[in-house]
Each structure stands twice: as C-alpha cells, then as structure tokens.
Fold:
Amino acid sequence: MLKIANISVTFNEGTLDEKKALNGIDLEMERGDFVTVIGSNGAGKSTLMNVISGNILPDVGDVLIDGKQVVHLPEYKRSAFIGRVFQDPMAGTAPSMTIEENLAMAYSRDKKRKLKIGVTKKRKDIFREHLGTLNLGLEDRLSAKVGLLSGGERQALSLMMATFTEPNILLLDEHTAALDPSRAELITSLTEKVVRESGLTTLMVTHNMQQALDLGNRLIMMDKGQIIFEANGEAKKELTVERLLQEFQRIRGEQFEDDRVVLG
Structure:
C-alpha cells in the first residue's frame, strides 16, 4: 500500500544551518499494516510524515501509494486518499464551523469538490451513527461549533474525519501528545478500535515508547534521518522500553537522551 524508496530531504542546503532531515529512507507497508515510529527530537519522524502527505517535496526518491507514484502530487490532491491527524487538536478541524459541517467536508474528501457543503438529513443520520461509536455524546451536538469542544473531543472528531472515507493511508502525527493522560488514553483506545475495525494502513509517530510497543504490528526507530531499528510481529511483542533503549545504545554507541520518549 505504501512504498518509500531512497527518500532524502535536506533543509537550508549550502548554508551554515544545513540539516539532513532524511537520508536515504526506505520503507514498505502492506495493506493493513500498523507501523509505530519512535525517535528523539530531530530524528526525522515528522519530515517523513510531511513527505508522504505531500507537504514537503523530497530532494530525491519515490513515494508510491497503492502502486501509484505520487512524489510530485501536491498535498491537496493526496488528501483524497490520505487521512492525517496532527498533534494539535486545533489543526484538523474548522473551529468556526459546526460538527456536522466539519464532518460534511471530511465525507466529501474523496469526491468531486463542490462549493456547497452538503449537510442532508441522510448525512446527518450517518454522522450520528459514527459519532455514537465514540461514546462522547457528540451525536447529540451536531449543530455545536467545534471551537467549543474540549481538546479530547476535538481530537476524537479529527480522528473520525481522517478515517471517515477509509483512506489508503492514515497518518497519526503524535496525535495524543497534547492531551492530558485520561484523554490521551481515550484517543489511543479509539485509534486502536478504528484502525482494527477498518483495517486501515496506518503510520503513527509517537514520543511515547510504551505506546509504540502497545499499538500496531510493526515498530521502527529513527535517528538522524535514518531508520536504525525495526521489529515485526512476535519480535515486537517481546520488546520492552528497556530493550529498546539497549538497542539504541548498541546501534549508536550512546545513550538515548530524550526523556519525553522514555517517559511518554
């Protein structure tokens, strides 16, 4: 479903601030894979997400989704088959619009663009049905402005909007990091449920090593723009945070120093 081949990205090339954000990244994901991505600040995790979504054009390399080359396809065109949830609960929704208007936009993402946002009775019934699965009471607040929702409610809505049309690829960019522990746990549980029930091919960046171990069927660790470690299936299930830190030290010859990653 996703193939990334020899992707490299350099910021501020030729200046004193030059930084190699990605260095020859190769990654393949089969349909239904749920891959968690761990790494310290500056490892290249968010840059990888931005290359896949089309927000950043790589210097070299290929991005193929469902066998189709998309590396030169702009972000707005890729949005028809890529869903994304950001760290900031404010980023994935329009606060001045109602819940039903936001959902109507998401519902039409993979369809031909129209000027009018369609909130028909049939669609309202669909929205209520989907919102009811969140167990947050949002199905009874369709006409409420999204800006009035709590961070957790808004992130739950963002997750639903990103997965409404069952995209080819779902990108989760530290989507629980800005929430308090109870809300983060709620969104994590909803994520696992939605991805499992819909069989979505999912790439999730997280600063929380335990979360990366608990979710998904594959784990990759990034450092300095490279994938330095990967664990699949049973090997992933046997991993612990301590063993991940040991692997980093074995590969890099130094200790992992990002407390946010270790402590979540």
